[in-house]
Write a structure and sequence with these properties.
By secondary structure, the protein is α+β, with helices and mostly antiparallel strands. The chain has a domain of 122 residues: Beta Polymerase, domain 2, CATH 3.30.460.10. The chain has 8 helices and 6 strands. Strands 3-4-5-2-1-6 form a 6-stranded mixed beta sheet. A hairpin with a 6-residue loop joins β3 and β4. The protein is elongated, with a radius of gyration of 37 Å. The chain starts with a helix and ends with a helix. The relative contact order is 0.12. The C terminus is likely disordered.
Length: 197
């Protein structure tokens, strides 16, 4: 898998996790595209808020379930599930933070990651679709260039089925009939064999 493919796969996983947040009524869901120099190992932070600890656990559970069933991916580690105030799901290439609203305001991760590019799930989705369309166009162009450079085979005129069948039948030689002389000789030899026996 190339680096580009791995990055695209990570974006698909982040998009699926963001959709799980939306489906479980997460509030102010944001995706931070982290600066490669500043971020270390992760490419993205997905941040969402919940109104109570039960909702934050439900959001985290939905993200984990969806990524496992749809993509076969499990988090490297999960922290804070028991308290539900700040649940962290570490998928290595991206990290999900599910906060209670008061905790999110207190820690203010968005402010701490000033070099990160914030995106709404809708903007992230639009970028992903645009990148996919560009990639598809590039692959099609490459395929078209390959076929344009290949030597063309001469076109053969096709004949109607009846004419083709008639020609095939006409070309077949008729089965050979045994000559009368060979037939008589064969009978004589058979008769002689019977006399000897």
């Amino acid at each position: 898998m190339t680096t580009h493919d791995a990055h695209h796969q990570t974006r698909l996983l982040v998009q699926a996790a963001a959709q799980a947040c939306e489906d479980k009524k997460g509030l102010e869901t944001r995706i931070l595209e982290l600066d490669p120099v500043d971020s270390g190992l992760s490419d993205f932070f997905l941040i969402t808020s919940a109104t109570n600890d039960r909702q934050s656990v439900a959001i985290a559970d939905e993200i984990e379930h969806r990524l496992k069933t749809e993509y076969g991916v499990q988090p490297n580690s999960v922290e804070g599930r028991k308290q539900g105030e700040w649940i962290l799901l570490d998928y290595v290439d991206f990290v999900v933070h599910v906060f209670l609203s008061a905790r999110r305001a207190f820690y203010d991760i968005e402010r701490l990651r000033k070099s990160a590019r914030p995106l709404t799930p809708e903007a992230f989705d639009a970028e992903l679709k645009s990148a996919l369309a560009a990639r598809t166009a590039a692959v099609r162009k490459k395929a078209a260039n390959k076929t344009a450079g290949a030597p063309r085979k001469p076109a053969h005129k096709t004949q109607p089925a009846k004419k083709a069948a008639a020609k095939a039948t006409a070309k077949k030689p008729a089965p050979k009939k045994a000559s009368p002389r060979k037939t008589a000789k064969a009978k004589t030899q058979t008769g002689k064999a019977g006399i000897k026996g």
